[in-house]
Amino acid sequence: MNFYDILNIPYNSNLLDICNAYQIKCQNNPENTFLYTKIFNVLCNKATRIYYDALLFNKDILDLTSHINYDSYYIFDEYDLLPFIDWLEIFKNYFYETKYFTTNQTYHQLIEKWYDKIELILEHLKSFIESLYLL
């Protein structure tokens, strides 16, 4: 369960949606107000939300790649996998550039670690492409 699930909002929620969900959650469960406030602070701050979304994305990709059956002869259709790899490359590079929007060194270090993990995932996914003309 992630922050979006806890507040019952979609990933693409805007600030107003987040505020409304936060208010409803606090009114319905006042004993959890501290938790909801922490979640609200993460999702309402652009920098922390971007980083949180990247962590969720990273976890989803790691979960996806960890369930691969290595004993299977046929794992992925290369034609389906390649667009995903291309998209992940673009996302990786775009997200990496967010570190230039802040001087926070902790954020820079976190982005570097995230970037390295995504690189490993991409290398792993690319290993399933055997056709020379797709590389």
Name the features:
6 helices; mainly alpha; 2 domains; 135 residues; elongated
Question: Would you kindly provide a written description of the structure presented here, covering whatever features stand out?
Answer:
There is one protein chain. With 135 residues, this protein is mainly α. The protein has 2 domains: 1-44, no CATH class; 46-135, no CATH class. Helix content is 69%, strand content 0%. It has 6 helices and no strands. α2 (15-28) runs antiparallel to α3 (33-44). The chain is elongated. Residues 70-75 have low confidence and may be disordered.
The proportion of residues in beta strands is under 5%
- Broad shape: elongated
Instruction: Kindly report the average pLDDT value.
Output: 81
| Count of extended strands | 0
Helix share, percent = 55-70%
Largest sheet, in brief, is:
none
**Number of helix segments?**
6
Order of helices and strands: HHHHHH
Number of domains: 2
**CA distance, first residue to last residue:** 37 Å
Unreliably modeled segments: 70-75
Radius of gyration: 18 Å
Oligomer: single chain
Computed structural class: mainly alpha
